[in-house]
Structure formats: structure tokens, C-alpha cells
Specification:
The protein is mainly alpha-helical. Helix content is 67%, strand content 0%.
Length: 121
């Protein structure tokens, strides 16, 4: 890959942190504004995972990379609004923690692991 992948990895971590901050504001299954904000962040997170190197993804088969990509397509192309808030909440609870740990591990193992300037803590 000619372009550095680390900014995408940092973006994934920033997006996960943003989703957690959104959840602190209220229940995404009850508040449509918070729910929409989470959906948008899941979409950008999914897009960023597609830009991680295939070698890195192959080294972490415990992460359902293809499902993450597929979920992005569902989020983007589901114009009828059938996406279930309970399912999205379960995705956040069950899949974001292992993804977060994996991406942190990838960054720790990377030769250039500098944090982006615009990272929000």
C-alpha cells in the first residue's frame, strides 16, 4: 500500500471513542438523534477498516473484517430505515471492544505509530 494506513487506524479509534461519548448522552435505542449519530460513525469506521493493510487483517482473523465491510454497505444502502437499534447496540457492545484492541495492537506493532494531531481524547 503506497499510502500510510496508520491515519485510518487512528480514525477507527477516534470513531470508537466518539461512539462511546454518544452513548454517554443517552440510550441510542430510544433517542433517534443519538442513534443517527452512531450510525454515521459506524459507517465511517467501517470505511476506514477497508483501508487497513490486508496483511494486518489476515494476522487478526478473530475480527470479522468482511462483516464490518458488509455492515457499512447495509448502513449506506438501507434507504428504508429497517436497521434495528437493538442490533446496532449489540454490535457496539460485542464488536467494538475487540476491534479497538486489535487496532491498538496494530498501531503498537507499526514502525510509525505517531498519533494524529486532531485526535480527541
Amino acid at each position: 500500500m503506497s499510502k500510510s494506513w496508520q491515519p485510518y487506524a487512528w480514525h477507527i479509534l477516534d470513531t470508537i471513542a466518539k461512539i462511546h461519548r454518544i452513548e454517554l448522552r443517552g440510550d441510542i435505542t430510544q433517542d433517534e438523534i443519538l442513534y443517527d449519530a452512531v450510525l454515521r460513525n459506524l459507517q465511517t469506521l467501517s470505511e476506514a477498516t477497508q483501508l487497513l493493510p490486508i496483511e494486518a487483517k489476515n494476522a487478526h482473523p478473530e475480527i470479522p473484517w468482511k462483516s464490518i465491510s458488509g455492515f457499512r454497505n447495509i448502513l449506506v444502502h438501507n434507504y428504508l430505515g429497517d436497521i434495528d437499534p437493538i442490533t446496532v447496540s449489540a454490535v457496539i457492545k460485542n464488536f467494538l471492544p475487540p476491534l479497538e484492541q486489535c487496532v491498538k495492537s496494530l498501531l503498537n506493532d507499526a514502525p510509525d505509530q505517531s498519533s494524529p494531531v486532531n485526535s480527541k481524547k
